[in-house]
Design a protein that fits this description.
This protein has ten helices and no strands. The chain is mainly alpha-helical.
């Protein structure tokens, strides 16, 4: 308990919370943006899609299937040379954010594709029958109609990224997960471990509540 109070007093606990939120926010902005683009392309280029293109769909689908199942801790090591080439560092926050964004990109891509596929084909066909072109159909019908489920997908991804940040210490990163491992688990201090766990649970619950609220409003339009 005393060590936990020391971490609070010297600001290390608050710094870990802010670091975790920083990791997740940046990864979701970069990976979420790229993943959304890939997810939309997967949806529209598949057989029977608005812009059906078999070669394009095959390449994108292969990339997503190849990278998405790799455990994050393995991806941290496997992408270290690429992270060093892109960010100039193979360890620390730059490398961690690169790998996080990379993992989020392919995870979000599949979530976006799966949720956009729930849009009734009849809605898209009606738009095309009224003279809407492919791009207009995508941006004014497909994406808006699938936005509610997509928001729920983003919420799930946010929570998954919070889990991934627990591995930050492997390459010299920080955050709540690293704090719990370094000062809690390794020093046999359950107060620190469970404090970090409870804070993560609170963050997850708040994000889930926000995501559910936004999705509910979008689905009621």
């Amino acid at each position: 308990m005393n060590q936990l109070m020391e971490l609070v007093e010297n600001g290390m606990l608050w710094a870990a919370i802010l670091k975790t939120l920083q990791y997740v926010t940046i990864a979701m902005l970069i990976g979420g943006g790229l993943g959304t683009v890939i997810g939309v392309l997967l949806t529209v280029t598949r057989a029977g899609g608005i812009l059906a293109n078999k070669p394009s769909y095959f390449v994108l689908n292969f990339l997503v299937n190849f990278f998405r199942p790799i455990p994050f801790v393995i991806l941290l090591g496997a992408l270290q040379p690429l992270a060093r080439a892109v960010t100039g560092k193979g360890i620390g926050d730059p490398a961690l954010l690169f790998v996080l964004s990379f993992a989020v990109t392919f995870g979000i891509a599949r979530l976006v594709e799966q949720n956009l596929l729930t849009v009734p084909p009849g809605v898209i066909e009606a738009a095309r029958a009224m003279g809407a072109g492919p791009l207009r159909t995508i941006f004014t019908v497909l994406i808006p109609e699938g936005l509610g489920p997509v928001v729920l997908g983003y919420t799930f991804a946010f929570i998954a990224v919070v889990d991934m940040t627990a591995m930050a210490g492997v390459i010299g990163g920080g955050g709540l997960g690293n704090l719990a491992l370094q000062y809690g688990y390794r020093q046999f201090n359950p107060w620190i471990t469970w404090s970090a766990v409870l804070i993560i649970i609170v963050i997850v619950q708040l994000v889930q509540l926000l995501g559910n609220t936004i999705a509910r409003k979008l689905l009621r339009r």
